[in-house]
Amino acid sequence: MSANQNLKTIRLNEADNIVVARVLLDAGERVEEENITTSDEILRGHKVATEDIAKGRVIRKYGQIIAFATSDISKGEHIHSHNAEYADYDRDYAWSADAKETRLIAENERVTFEGYVREDGSVGTRNYVGILASVNCSNSVARLIADQFTEAVMKSWPNVDGVVALPHQTGCCIPFDGETHGNLERTLTGFARHPNFAGVLIVGLGCEVAQIDNMLEKADLQKSDTLQTLVIQECGGTAATVSSGIKCIEGVLHKANQARRSTCSASHLMVALECGGSDGYSGITANPALGVAVDLLVGNGGTAILAETPEIYGAEHLLTRRAINREIGEKLIKRIEWWEKHTSANQAKMDNNPTPGNKNGGLTTILEKSLGAVAKCGTTTLVDVYRYSEPVAAKGFVFMDTPGYDPASITGMVAGGANVTCFTTGRGSVYGGKPVPSIKLATNTEMYSRMQDDMDINCGVIVDGTATTEHVGQQIFQTILDTASGKMSLSEKHGIGDLEFCPWQIGAVM
Question: Alpha-carbon distance 279 to 367, whole Å?
């Protein structure tokens, strides 16, 4: 797709009864391509009715239901939260109806990148040394150890990207067999084995629920010269633990500094897909373009992870149609049902999302947001569904159950093995998350121009009419390869990523 520069609006499907404003439309402005005259000012990315819509009737975008009219809407009228709302409706899951065999490129013809091959065969895109805390109570000690390895000190280990401590806000006063503890254990052990870390030190307090030895045993991880642990209460306190930690990290750094990049197949890439600060253009530009890149990645044997379960709500029927079998489709729907119960139990609704920023950008309901969000996963078959931070073993397009909150969502996907993040944004997110590079994809040119220091690619050229979705998708795929090979993303250049580690907390803190 490439928008026609001569048109004022964008029609996404012939069945739609709305179009999206490509430019600012004044009240009383004539839109010839749709034979309408606007009755209100319509901001870029917002919706305008192309026919009269009676109260209670459906509003369609992408050929799908995105809302229901709360009042009679006239042709040419602005459609948004003042006259449209979410309402549930029956969806046809059509299990696996659109599933198809993925055409894989022959192994000897697949594209490559320059990565770090680890002893277990996994491949990293960065070469960090990590310090993890088992509990919030050991965050400060982990940070004090990392702070010793300043930029000047790290010149002694030029082949290491840095020493990074990742603090978090949980680890104790939670049920031992509860979901928060399970999420934390899988997240910490997922980071401990992550190929972007040449080695990891885990620091605990000693009396917390999240006992280090227990989590390592459950994950079948063995302590070694590249996976070390310290317990503050056993070491003799803060100063003694910091001193021991410095020695541990120095030992890891000597080995990490010996790592070198080598040519690897793109089949070793696992990309986390994220939307943040979405707007009315997200489902028109950046997300479909990222979907093109995902299809190229999957064709080359790689893996793409779609997540944010609350933000596929209302579009899940499009994914069940693509599930490799009914079992995988039902696995996805069970996660949707869990979220319906979870939100209800917490006096919330699934349509509490979109956020105020999303709505300012033109998104009205979760249905509209979700339909645009799923565009970023391309067109291939859904091959598996994973719990939060569960290790991803499948190749191809998979789904992981995460919240829509960006730091928590990406933390889960990285724990699952993602070694690159692609992050689409319309309002302008500045997220970065060590040890994995985050590539920012701007949905519109205005925001890209305003935030060029943070946006890696401008997908707004699609709606500007100067590039096609396919062209931008190929650009994204090449940027994934370049970034995986060591090119720094803009968030990395800013040094962002130490504080965004955010394991998903569920349930009671006691």
Answer: 13
Q: What CATH fold (topology level) applies to the domain 128-256?
A: Ribose 5-phosphate Isomerase B; Chain: A, (3.40.1400)
Q: Where are the beta strands (DSSP E) in 2-56?
A: 9-10, 18-21, 30-31, 36-37, 47-49
Q: Kindly give the parts of the chain with pLDDT less than 70.
A: 1-3
3-state SS track over 436-451: ECEEEEECCHHHHHHC
Which pLDDT does position 209 carry in this prediction?
97
Q: At what angle do helices 286-299 and 469-484 cross, to 10 degrees?
A: 60
Asked if CATH classification 2.30.130.110 holds for the domain at 9-85, the reply, yes or no, is yes
The number of residues making up the chain comes to 510
Helix (H) / strand (E) containing 244: helix 238-256
pLDDT value of residue 2: 65
Residue ranges per domain, the chain?
9-85, 128-256, 270-493
Cβ atoms of 266 and 485 closer than 8 Å: no
The full 3-state SS of 263-325, as one line of letters, equals EEEHHHCEEEEEECCCCCCCCCCHHHHHHHHHHHHHHCCCEEEECCHHHCCCCHHHHHCCECC
Cα gap 192→432, rounded to integer Å? 19
Nearest to 308 by CA among 353, 267, 271: 353
Distance CA 336, CA 15 (A): 27
Region for residue 347 given its phi and psi (left: phi exceeds 0; alpha: psi -120 to 50; beta: otherwise): left
Q: Which pLDDT score is estimated for 355?
A: 84
Dihedral sign (CA 301, 302, 305, 306): negative
End-to-end CA distance of the chain: 52
At 255, which amino acid appears?
K
**Strand 197-204 relative to strand 128-133: parallel, antiparallel, unpaired?**
parallel
